[in-house]
Amino acid sequence: MANKKILLNYERNGTSHTLKSYLSRDGYKTLTDKIPEQKPEQVLDEVKKSGIRGRGGAGFPAGIKWSFLPKESDKPVYLICNGDEGEPGTFKDRVILEENPHMLIEGMILSCYAINAKHAYIYIRGEYGFALRRVQEAVDEAYQAGYLGKKLKGTDYVCDITVHKGAGAYVVGDETGLMNSIEGKKGQTRNKPPFPAIEGLYQCPTIINNVETLASVPWIITNGGDAYHAIGTEKSTGTKLISISGHVCKPGVYEVDLGYPFMDFLNKDCGGVLGSRKLKAVIPGGSSTPVLKPEDCKNMTIDYESIAAAGSSLGSGAIIIIAEGTCMVKTLAVLTHFYHHESCGQCTPCREGTGWLNKIIKRIEAGEGKMEDIDLLTSITKHIAFHTICPLGDAACGPVDSFVKQFRDEFVEHIEKGGCPFGGEFVRFQERV
Amino acid sequence: MKEVTFTVDGKEITVPAGTLIIEACEKNGIYIPRFCYHKHLIPSGNCRMCLVKIEKNPKPQPSCMTPVTDGMVVYTNTPEVIEMRKAMLEFVLINHPLDCPICDKAGECMLQDQYMEFSGDKSRFNETKVAKEKLYHFSDKILYDAERCITCSRCVRFTREISKTNKLGIVERGDKSYIALAHDDTFDDPYSYCVTDLCPVGALTAKYFRFKERVWNLHKTDSICAGCSRGCNISIQTKDNKIYRVVPRENDNVNKSWMCDFARDHYVGPMKNRTTGVKIDHKETSYESFVEEMVSLFKEHAKEMVFILSAYATNEELTLAKQLADSSGVKAIFKKQDRVWNKSTGEVKSDDILIKEDKTPNMTGVQKTFPTAKDMSELVISDYKYAFVWGPNAAMDKLNGLQIISLSAKKDQVSDKAKWAIAGRFAAEKHGSFTNCDGIVQLFRRALKGENNFDELSFFVDLLKGLNVEPVGRTVDEVRNKTVVME
């Protein structure tokens, strides 16, 4: 089955990021040809019809999110493109930002037009220096060519885009945290409600979408929402960028139609597990999604429903392949270290709990664990998950709960043996001060 | 105002629309534990201690952030909520140093109290605690212990919302986060001590009170600050007739939960420059003979006497003074500012928060009792022979050539030069009431024993008796009950 190329519709020759290359691919044609005859409501309708779901991780339908904006408000509306791609294992937005930024800009102009936003922000994480330069260059080119800052052809509509550099915090990937960061505040999330569509950036109605979601908009408007809906499955429409990493022969970013069989993807497209080892575990949607065993993945297809049925989540589409011979306790220690390090410290359960989890798991890995520690882990996660302001708490608990559930025997082995059965010398993760 | 009805723990409650769950519950006798929520700060919802279960809501919600809506069904005592509270206390406590035996907050610590009330469980934490800065000098007044801190952000929000100095912020992330000042800055804020009251644990402490006394040993007296005409509600905390500290009392109409640093520093420590005993011609004499001489003075020379009022006087004393002036025939009545702003002390002249430019507590009471009293600057001494000067800070150059009677707690030029001098009491040493700048009459109780067995009130009572006039009342309460209108 050939997967459709919507987002990666270019040859990777090092020039795809330029305006010239994008125009040669019929870029900005939607703006110049379609917009003069389409009203904002029609654009919004097409996006709704397409059924595209938010690609950042939560999978909320984008068109429905847009329609939450208050109908009558004298405040300006903002659009934010969330390019704070922080979930471990996720690097798909980076490809769009670095290699196809004009498609994102066109998508943002169209989206702004649909929701009547005059000003949009692209928030890019601080670690993406190269992507940031590429996007800034592309925005400058778009201003020079008159797509930004000037009236769109056939309308009175003017759109501006500001590129904003983040300072490096996982929690800013949450929409309200990102807004605080743009406002110049500490990157900590806000309590919801109010939701961003009512009171977001600068207390104004705000729509925030992932890079991939917004970059898909030009194709949807050009070809129609129905055409997009025809790709993928009934409830998971369109294509999805998958960033696959770990013990896999050909790691990288792939564009697949949703509903694509997982095992085909792993073995055919990505060349199978590295070193012909057996598959031990799969983290299917970024580090915060529950880990799956190979038998759960056998008949799984890459779409929201199938992965949910298998007991995990498509998340941001970041598949991490773990091969036989890997110590799962150590893997979990790495993951919990990340969440401990990234906890913003605003609310109690996550601030204190993530560190506690990490300390216990490191102790088990070092062979100093006790049997009651295993149950202690799950009893801690029970009180972190869904008790925090933002989903970081839930994210930190997903892997802990699933690792303990799926690989409990390995934890027991560590404790009984008084050390790591994989012989791996325990590496103490240096805490950055 | 629109009202909404909701159910909490099976009980139907009606409150004004927009009331937060935590407030609605508290008004109806259900206390929801909290750390970061404070009545006079904008809620931040970060301690997660006040989580409650709301029907039809899959996640527990912070009751300090959620306004009540019509028909809402809230549970604050289900096993799930109880377990949640225990878990939050456990989280707060895992990195808390548990140094209660040497912590000044012990005894009034919200963490201690709420742990005792809502948990009491043993710790399951077997790891190393996070080590942080123990002695962070915010200023020469405030010390911060980052290990005790539970980053509830009350202090940060106070400097942003109330004192508006924006001095404090939270730096670092996760369990390493702590409260900090900007680099090379000091916590220079006229209300900085308020953060020590706000701090739910012992992270922020006032240096003047550190290791001085356990809070449960202190005797707490409700009083009114005499530092300016705002009349902040305070609690004077004493032991062995010595003031150890002063903290604000809550009063939504006057000072919310705040008071200024200047007044606190002023109350604590020995009283300077006080007058003592009874003197005639600079010689100690008995109270009885003093009263006798005063009575004859009022009988024979009332017309030649200037009566200068004190704005430190209580309403009850003023009532008797009025009776004295009326019955003896003193006509020339003047008022004065007993204390004026002095830049050199570092005191704030006035601000939009609490501090008023009028640095006396009861000018409103003086004006109400003696509506015709003129300002002392209008005094022309050539018409008079005697001056009855009540309270400190009368302009001496205005009184030259007059024979002075001084009634004052504070020693100054006038009390030194007076022919007749009797010691008064400071506000902390007597009962009474002050009328603040907004006309609110506020009672206060005596926190310290006075040195003498007489005070202003008993002195006026004795004078009236000597003049064969029945005083309105013989005690503070008697006078007040008959005259002062409480609002």
Q: What's the helix and strand layout?
A:
The complex is a heterodimer of chains A (433) and B (487).
Chain A: H1 19-24, H2 29-34, H3 40-50, H4 62-66, E1 78-83, H5 92-99, H6 101-115, E2 119-124, H7 129-144, E3 160-165, H8 175-182, E4 206-210, H9 211-223, H10 225-230, E5 239-246, E6 252-257, E7 260-261, H11 262-269, E8 279-283, H12 294-297, E9 301-302, H13 304-310, E10 318-323, H14 328-342, H15 348-365, H16 371-384, H17 392-406, H18 408-417
Parallel strand pairs in A: 1-2, 1-4, 2-3, 5-10
Antiparallel strand pairs in A: 5-6, 7-9, 8-10
Helix pairs in contact in A: 3-6, 5-7, 6-9, 14-15, 14-17, 15-16, 15-17, 16-17
Chain B: E1 3-8, E2 11-16, H1 21-27, E3 51-54, E4 61-62, E5 73-75, H2 79-94, H3 110-118, E6 136-137, E7 142-144, H4 154-162, E8 168-171, E9 178-181, H5 194-198, E10 204-206, E11 219-224, E12 233-239, E13 242-248, H6 261-267, E14 278-280, E15 283-284, H7 287-301, E16 305-309, H8 315-328, E17 332-335, H9 363-369, E18 374-375, E19 386-390, E20 403-408, H10 413-417, E21 420-423, E22 432-435, E23 441-444, H11 456-466, H12 476-482
Parallel strand pairs in B: 1-5, 16-17, 16-19, 17-18, 19-20, 20-21
Antiparallel strand pairs in B: 1-2, 3-4, 3-5, 6-7, 7-10, 8-9, 11-12, 12-13, 14-15, 14-21, 22-23
Helix pairs in contact in B: 2-3, 7-11, 8-11, 8-12
